[in-house]
């Protein structure tokens, strides 16, 4: 079996699956059970500095979005950082790290944006033997109002400043956790780099209102008639997270900076996708909260088998493999032509492809006698909508036209893949050469 042992900013763990800072990592009891289940590491639920206690709501703190099968797709929360006393957490972290020296124990921190506050807490964390710290600049609710969390994460200058303090006052690796609630993820990532961060982790949760209670006329979850935005996570946010990870991995300013990928990781495949786009490991929250700690078994088994099947012998070999293939739209090969094709044996004659194409797209699907649906190549622009609305997997697929084959829509032969594209006016490389 492929070796899943992972090293992230010098922190070793038996596999690249860490639990993200959240309820699953809020206490010793949970973390011990997580390690027994096989998790490679944890980022301990965010600690704050000593001071007035953190008090959570006593009403519901979650909202959700489900698929038609009631599968949880998106989770929204209005929970704050840990509400357990600092010294209790520190004592527990020390005990857990002592008993699981081979697992990664990183401590998430969020204290006021003042040098003294950071300087004060870091030695206490170091004393636990923890492997590193993660700076929570992402929490989108509750703490932002107090000048912490995403209030810091949205201002690159603050990120740089706090990261620099942490690098100054601790020898532990510093991972900066980024909020997605910004316009361009490169700005905070670059700031973290300037401040000397060892790595970035992303994403934290996305500002969201998952639903409105139409009787109470208030957002859900509703607390005594009022609601507030929460932080969105789970499978629904994975596409946003993947893009942000890829942006950091492929841009010169931030390329090479280690990335811990977070956001909707539920299966080994999700994890492999984050790795391929540049992550060195992944963190998981919602999947563990939905299915329990043992979900890591499938992740380990699946990633390992897939790596074996592809001949990858280490996680590091997978990291960044897809990054060279992430490009800007203008670099896409416009000579690449495909057409939809319908497998008549698999078709259940529901007509969704027809409705979608006829009403909203290119009128390229014909309904024939007996509800037989056929693609009209002369109208098909290969948009792929029919593939996505079809309820039967692989019933509609896209067939690539060979070089020299006639494209019935344009009436032109498909050029050789690379030959003609190099001189195509839409190819920026060709323009540069002129
Ligand atoms: C209930 C809940 C509490 C969370 N608390 C924290 C926190 O204290 N600190 C933090 O950095 N992230 C916190 N997060 C965010 C997660 O660590 C993670 O970034 C996010 O959930 C995305 O991952 P996922 O899609 O696997 O859940 C919390 C998430 C949830 C659902």
From TrEMBL:
* Catalysed conversion reaction: 5,6-dihydrothymine + NAD(+) = thymine + NADH + H(+); 5,6-dihydrouracil + NAD(+) = uracil + NADH + H(+)
The family assignment reads: Belongs to the dihydropyrimidine dehydrogenase family.
Enzymatic class: oxidoreductase
- The signal peptide stretch is none
Q: Any one cellular component term from GO for this entry?
A: cytoplasm
Give the organism the record lists: Tropicimonas isoalkanivorans
Task: Fetch the SUPFAM superfamilies from UniProt.
Answer: 4Fe-4S ferredoxins, FMN-linked oxidoreductases
Renumbered to this chain, the Polar residues biased-composition regions fall at 423-434
This entry's Gene Ontology molecular function terms read: dihydropyrimidine dehydrogenase (NAD+) activity; iron-sulfur cluster binding; metal ion binding
EC identifiers of the protein? 1.3.1.1
Q: Does the keyword Metal-binding apply?
A: yes
How would you summarize the oligomeric state and partners of this protein? Heterotetramer of 2 PreA and 2 PreT subunits.
Q: Could you tell me the superkingdom of the organism this chain comes from? A: Bacteria
What is the name listed in the Swiss-Prot or TrEMBL entry for this protein? Answer: dihydrouracil dehydrogenase (NAD(+))
Residue ranges annotated for the 4Fe-4S ferredoxin-type domain, each copy included: 338-370, 371-401
Q: Which InterPro entries match?
A: 4Fe4S_Fe-S-bd, 4Fe4S_Fe_S_CS, Aldolase_TIM, Dihydroorotate_DH_cat
One Pfam short name? DHO_dh
Region feature (Disordered): 415-434
Q: Which UniProt keywords apply?
A: Iron, Iron-sulfur, Metal-binding, Oxidoreductase
Provide the function of this protein.
Answer: Involved in pyrimidine base degradation. Catalyzes physiologically the reduction of uracil to 5,6-dihydrouracil (DHU) by using NADH as a specific cosubstrate. It also catalyzes the reverse reaction and the reduction of thymine to 5,6-dihydrothymine (DHT).
């Amino acid at each position: 079996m492929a070796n899943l042992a992972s090293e992230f900013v010098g922190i070793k763990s038996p596999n690249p699956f860490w639990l993200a800072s959240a309820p699953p990592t809020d206490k010793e009891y949970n973390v011990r059970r997580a390690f027994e289940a096989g998790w490679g590491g944890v980022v301990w639920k965010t600690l704050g500095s000593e001071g007035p206690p953190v008090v959570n709501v006593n009403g519901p703190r979650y909202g959700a979005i489900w698929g038609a099968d009631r599968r949880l797709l998106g989770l929204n929360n209005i929970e704050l950082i840990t509400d357990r006393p600092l010294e209790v957490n520190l004592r527990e972290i020390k005990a857990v790290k002592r008993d699981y020296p081979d697992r990664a124990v990183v401590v998430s921190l969020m204290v006021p944006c003042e040098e003294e506050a950071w300087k004060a807490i870091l030695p206490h964390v170091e004393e636990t033997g923890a492997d590193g710290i993660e700076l929570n600049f992402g929490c989108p609710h509750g703490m932002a109002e107090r000048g912490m969390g995403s209030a810091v994460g949205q201002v690159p200058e603050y990120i740089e400043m706090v990261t620099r303090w942490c690098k100054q006052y601790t020898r532990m690796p510093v991972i900066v956790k980024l909020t997605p609630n910004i316009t361009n993820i490169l700005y905070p990532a670059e700031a973290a780099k300037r401040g000397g961060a060892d790595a970035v982790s992303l994403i934290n949760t996305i500002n969201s209102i998952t639903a409105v209670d139409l009787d109470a006329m208030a957002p859900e979850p509703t607390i005594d008639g009022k609601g507030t935005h929460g932080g969105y996570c789970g499978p629904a946010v994975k596409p946003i997270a993947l893009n942000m990870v890829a942006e950091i991995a492929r841009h010169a300013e931030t390329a090479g900076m280690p990335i811990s990928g977070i956001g909707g990781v539920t299966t080994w495949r999700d994890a492999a996708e984050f790795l391929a786009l540049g992550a060195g490991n992944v963190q998981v929250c919602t999947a563990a909260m939905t299915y329990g700690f043992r979900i890591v078994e499938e992740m380990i088994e699946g990633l390992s088998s897939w790596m074996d099947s592809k001949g990858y012998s280490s996680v590091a070999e997978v990291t960044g493999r897809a990054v060279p293939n992430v490009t800007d739209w203008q670099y896409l090969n416009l000579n690449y032509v495909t057409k939809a094709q319908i497998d008549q044996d698999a078709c259940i004659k529901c007509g969704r492809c027809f409705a979608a194409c006829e009403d909203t797209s290119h009128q390229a699907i014909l309904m024939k006698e007996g509800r037989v649906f056929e693609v009209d190549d002369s109208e098909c622009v290969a948009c792929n909508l029919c593939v996505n609305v079809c309820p039967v997997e692989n019933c509609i697929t896209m067939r690539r036209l060979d070089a020299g084959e006639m494209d019935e829509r344009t009436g032109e032969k498909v050029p050789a893949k690379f030959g003609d594209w190099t001189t195509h006016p839409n190819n920026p490389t060709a323009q540069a050469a002129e």
